[in-house]
TrEMBL record:
Family per record: Belongs to the major facilitator superfamily. Proton-dependent oligopeptide transporter (POT/PTR) (TC 2.A.17) family.
A GO MF term: transmembrane transporter activity
Keywords from the named record: Membrane, Transmembrane, Transmembrane helix
Topology with respect to the bilayer: Multi-pass membrane protein
Compartments, record wording: Membrane
Protein name: Major facilitator superfamily (MFS) profile domain-containing protein
Main location: membrane
InterPro entries: MFS_trans_sf (IPR036259), POT_fam (IPR000109)
Top-level taxon of origin: Eukaryota
PANTHER family (UniProt xref): OLIGOPEPTIDE TRANSPORTER-RELATED (PTHR11654)
Pfam families xref list: PTR2 (PF00854)
Segments crossing the lipid bilayer: 82-101, 107-126, 185-206, 263-284, 347-368, 392-413
Length: 426
């Protein structure tokens, strides 16, 4: 997986350097077909690497802790918080530092630096090999997909869906229970998709709002629009230590549970914060449109609305807090509630929430844009944001988030945790 990232940055570096003299992206020379092919190959290596790295890497890290040891169980729960903390550091550096180097020094140098970082990370990962806990595979072990498929087939052939105690074959009973354990996670998974839709707006519509605002700071220095995207990771970096070191112990004393909140309670609180963030975004966008009308800027698509970028800080910060609660909570939930042999598949199920949520967001925006433009108007997502209505879309997302929250609370209230989580709570 690290090799995939490294190959992506290496290929992109070479392609960028060869596409124009000295990596000058403003050169008028057209890239060759080979360079275009290399560029797209490097892009497709990103999801390939992420698909392997995130589920398998996080599952491998969590497997380093002994679930039967009380202190290690608590440390494993903390791992998910600090894993996300480290991801936020990487995003912050990429947005604030790498983007600046690419725009002001050269894209080839920027990608080359990323390639060097990935190679160093790979070397560090390999250096820890002697200290890793490597579990011997179970005799006759099969891939997670094959195991899950076999369990589903056994369950489908069973005469009793809900009871397996009467089975004479213990292996059949175990596989049937395993399949049921996975299937009961699917309603929770489906109830979280609306969160993935809201999550997708951080890198898209939030950024478009920021482009129209007054981004001047000290001494008249203007922030680039991409710099606003560091506000979310910055809030994550601030909130993770507060949650892990202060809130969890305090909630633990109040509830009598080491983790403070159950996993689904944590996810639910994050959904509430996310819904509140979308409501705040709708109110801020309404204020921005009103300011544009007051200053006669409705028809000036490139105008800077006399409204400070600081108005966007609350919605970015609240989404960051929501991520720490919901995203990290879902990671641990799908890892903890999956059978041991399927935990990497469980984390892949979590990551699909964000991926499918992004697809739903794109489809929803395309549909709404087509409908709202049908009468000849500008539509909710007009290129001129001063004539658009992102606020209406945010209110729609708030409604979807409220419906999602109601469904989630109903499902969570009847969910029964497996023995792994029960041991964690005692």
């Amino acid at each position: 997986c690290v090799q995939g990232y490294g190959m992506m940055t290496l290929v992109t570096t070479l392609q960028t350097q060869r596409s124009s003299p000295a990596g000058d992206i403003h050169s008028s020379s057209r890239p060759s077909s080979l360079q275009v092919a290399l560029f797209y190959a490097s892009l497709y290596l990103i999801p390939l690497a992420q698909g392997a790295d995130k589920p398998c890497g996080l599952a491998f890290a969590a497997d380093q802790f002994d679930a039967d040891h009380p202190k290690e169980r608590a440390s494993r729960s903390s791992l998910f918080n600090w894993w996300y903390f480290s991801m936020a550091i990487g995003i912050s550096v990429a947005v604030a530092v790498v983007s600046y180097i690419q725009e002001n020094v050269g894209w080839g140098i920027g990608f080359g630096m990323l390639c060097a970082i990935m190679l160093c990370a790979f070397a560090v990962f390999l250096s820890g090999t002697p200290t890793y806990r490597l579990y011997a595979p179970t005799p006759g072990a099969e891939s997670p997909f094959a195991r899950l498929g076999r369990s589903l087939v056994v369950l489908g052939r069973s005469s009793s869906f809900f009871h397996t105690k009467g089975y004479q074959d213990e292996d059949v009973a175990a596989k049937s229970e395993e399949a049921r354990g996975v299937l009961r996670l699917l309603p929770i998974w489906a109830a979280c998709l609306a969160y993935g839709v809201a999550y997708a707006q951080i890198m898209t519509l939030f950024n478009k709002q920021g482009r129209t605002l007054d981004r001047r700071i000290f001494g008249g220095l203007e922030l680039p629009p991409a710099a606003l995207q560091t506000l979310g990771p910055a809030s994550i970096l601030l909130f993770v230590p507060i949650y892990d070191r202060l809130l969890v112990p305090a909630l633990g004393r109040a509830t009598g549970k080491p983790s403070g909140l159950t996993l689904l309670q944590r996810v639910g609180v994050g959904m509430v914060v996310s819904m509140s963030a979308v409501i705040v975004a709708a109110l801020v966008e309404g204020r921005r449109l009103e300011t544009a009308r007051e200053h006669g800027l409705v028809d000036d698509a490139g105008a800077t609305v006399p409204m400070s970028w600081a108005w966007l800080v609350p919605q970015y910060a609240m989404m960051g807090v929501a991520d720490v609660l919901t995203v990290v909570g879902l990671q641990e939930f799908f890892y903890d509630q999956m059978p041991r042999e399927l935990r990497s598949l469980g984390l892949a199920l979590y990551f699909s929430v964000m991926g499918i949520g992004g697809f739903i967001s794109s489809a929803l925006i395309s549909f709404i844009d087509r409908v709202t433009r049908s009468g000849g108007g500008d539509g909710w997502f007009a290129d001129n944001l001063n004539r658009a209505h992102l606020d209406y879309f945010y209110w729609l997302l708030a409604g979807l988030s409220a419906a999602e929250l109601g469904l989630f609370v109903w499902l969570a209230s009847s969910y029964t945790y497996n023995n792994n989580h029960k041991r964690l709570q005692h």
